């Protein structure tokens, strides 16, 4: 788990609007998971609220294969329950369905005390009704201005931009690495992108082919 200052810089780097300098091109999926740890385990509901808004806006460009690995490896049941609830909310994006396998226990309450009382008073957050997360309405403020819009983030984050162009895949992530460090070995690319050697090898060959091709006139 990164320090609070490092995590804040990474969150700003991927488009969550907090008052801090961004870490340029911060890793997307690990930052999302660490933010959920801050929200669910450290009870930082401000972070959890902005994270949830970000997911609603940008989920189409999340590498879900990588996210599922990171979430299922999380020791915290509360964190895994949050992501299982996200899977239910984003049921129209079938890629996220696999997150539900990371937690099969009973629903968890978002507040340390008083969740049931608050739900009776205010109702339930519509995004999580019937899910693995019980959250009173209004606990997680949903304000679109709390996150960067896609057309802004695509200009600021190289990895996000490549995913828009190529799809949210390991190939796009390999491409981002090679744009920064074209001399990396295939094995190092696979390690940094957390992908298979075969995926890295093919992307490296394609990258070098395009970089070596003469420009058309």
What does this protein look like?
The protein folds into 2 domains: 4-146, no CATH class; 169-212. Helix content is 54%, strand content 2%. The protein contains 11 helices and 2 strands, in the order αααααβαβααααα. A two-stranded parallel sheet has the order 1-2. The protein is elongated. Mean pLDDT is 92; it is low at 213-217.
Number of helices: 11
- DSSP summary, beta strand count: 2
Shape: elongated
Structural class based on helices, strands and sheet pairing: mainly alpha
In total, the number of domains comes to 2
Share of helical residues:
40-55%
Strand arrangement within the widest β-sheet reads 1-2
Low-confidence stretches: 213-217
Cα Rg: 19 Å
Tell me the series of helices and strands, N- to C-terminal: HHHHHEHEHHHHH
Topology:
Layout: H1 4-13, H2 28-40, H3 45-58, H4 64-72, H5 77-89, E1 108-109, H6 115-122, E2 133-134, H7 150-156, H8 158-166, H9 170-180, H10 186-193, H11 197-212
Parallel strand pairs: 1-2
Helix pairs in contact: 2-3, 2-4, 2-5, 7-8, 8-9, 9-10, 9-11, 10-11
Question: Which characteristics define this entry?
Answer:
217 residues, mainly alpha, elongated
Task: Please provide a brief summary of the model.
With 217 residues, the chain is mainly alpha-helical. The chain has 11 helices and 2 strands, in the order αααααβαβααααα. It folds into 2 domains: 4-146, no CATH class; 169-212.
């Amino acid at each position: 788990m990164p320090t609070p200052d490092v995590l804040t810089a990474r969150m700003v780097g991927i488009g969550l609007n907090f008052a801090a300098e961004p870490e340029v091109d911060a890793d997307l999926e690990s930052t999302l998971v660490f933010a959920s740890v801050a929200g669910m385990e450290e009870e930082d509901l401000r972070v959890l609220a902005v994270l949830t808004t970000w997911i609603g806006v940008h989920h189409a460009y999340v590498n879900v294969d990588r996210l599922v690995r990171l979430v299922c490896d999380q020791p915290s049941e509360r964190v895994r329950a949050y992501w299982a609830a996200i899977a239910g909310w984003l049921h129209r994006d079938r890629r996220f369905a696999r997150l539900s396998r990371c937690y099969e226990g009973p629903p968890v309450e978002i507040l340390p005390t008083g969740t049931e009382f608050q739900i009776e008073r205010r109702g339930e957050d519509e995004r999580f009704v019937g899910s693995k997360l019980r959250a009173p309405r209004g606990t997680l403020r949903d304000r679109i201005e709390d996150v960067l819009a896609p057309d802004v983030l695509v200009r600021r984050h190289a990895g996000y931009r490549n995913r828009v162009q190529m799809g949210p895949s390991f190939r796009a992530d390999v491409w981002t690495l090679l744009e920064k460090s074209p001399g990396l070995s295939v094995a190092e690319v696979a390690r940094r992108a957390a992908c298979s050697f075969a995926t890295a090898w093919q992307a490296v060959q394609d990258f070098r082919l395009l970089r070596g091709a003469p420009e058309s006139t």
